[in-house]
């Protein structure tokens, strides 16, 4: 578990897009973001207060989060200098970079000397159990996609925000790097060893109040041959009471698989529901979340209306039109 | 890849059952088994020639395989003495034990000094790729079970033996510890990191002759919530042309999951086939393999006849009645 709140490290980000992890933290957990740290040449700006390490420490920040992609997969000397200083100032470090903080001997040595933690959120920090399949208390919802990267994390975070706003009990349960950095906790599911995948999802979503919703971040797709095993573990480890179908209608083939067409929403509904019933016979599909970013406003509305009509389920683009329909469907369960 | 042939280490096995890995090697790959090494107090006997390390070396053995379970999860001092001597005599060591050879500093030091390899077949030795889903040449068959431990490995090994006997081209592709030790090669799928599961199965079953069959060892079950993700990766990474349904009719609940009933063969057929069609639209279910060990001869025959009648598929217990029906069905494809 990563100590919050954060100072967001934007480094020498070449543009705003390079800082999208930091942007995600600021958008979804503004209370976690005390300020931003920018180096010379940084072209990203989150609109947060620029702070020195000392100022951020005084403002209560506990962890310096690398909220930016690095260039060429290397932690540069300029970055390293700031990271070492941060450890010396008493910050933990957290990163979702491919090249790990814990693979840098100098950072490891300084962290040890200062008693600070290095969090590489691509690497599991927990020994997860093997799933036991025992029914847990509380309620769980999971987004399952026609493909990877269709907006499942966004859907979950938006749903969580809308439920909290209505005073409902909900927790977003991160299963990927960005989600873990945003919330400070979670399971890096794609890095978990096969035998423990479903168990790690059980661990992530334990017994809870009867009226509490765990919103489990979805991954992969049952129809994506590279990652379907991960999706399966989410469905069987998560024991969802509700499924949301996620889709991006303009995609021409499965991500990274040119020979593979996307399944229909009906195919995903039927397959996911059959599999979910193994762990939770009461599971229902409650709605559709569509990523309409490549459609005009009228196209998006027409598409959503068509899906609602065809499938008899509420359909929305949470980014464009909010997630109220999905919250309504969950509370009606 | 483990160097063959082997000297089979039976240690101080308390009974024959404790040496079942060695028994599997002797049964399925007799050419791999030069002899057996037994210590004082060993109550197992494979009927192979008892050999000293020197005799086995002269007979051509390259690897000492630990073919026996150890007591209390510890590699005892008595075992250690033999293992060190074997390394010094020029043997590699191979083991499927939970406690790893590579976690024993003395074995690691001696192996390094002697230039020998330590193979812990529970740990991947390869950096597997992410699956790319590209259609491969050659044919593949996979057993999918109603549950774990219903005889999928046995079915695959028996099918492989029967196909070779008919002069057909086939290769058993091991995906578990015992299978890897038997054949000397394979993927320890339950220990592979989530993102690379399907890719490891693609790696294991590469392009081959058009008339060659890879017989992929099945794991887990789509209906076993602890391990279903592993089964999924086999179906999508394996791109099977043919599926065999495996079942043990007397089991009262899913292995290790008291609250979970077994699915019907029809449920497994429909679910596995739908998922297999994502990677290979031509995939067919070609037969049923039933583990009838807890049934009388007449019960077994009646059960198999009933399954054949009900499902319109050939059904056999490969151990009891041979796998000819399954070979016939494969060659008829």
UniProtKB/TrEMBL annotation, chains A, B:
This is DUF1611 domain-containing protein. Residues 130-327 form the D-glutamate N-acetyltransferase-like C-terminal domain. The lineage of its organism: Bacteria, Pseudomonadati, Pseudomonadota, Alphaproteobacteria, Rhodobacterales. InterPro entries: DgcN-like, DgcN-like_C, DgcN-like_N, P-loop_NTPase. It holds the Pfam family DUF1611. It comes from the Bacteria. Residues 39-124 form the D-glutamate N-acetyltransferase-like N-terminal domain. PANTHER family: DUF1611 DOMAIN-CONTAINING PROTEIN, GLL3100 PROTEIN.
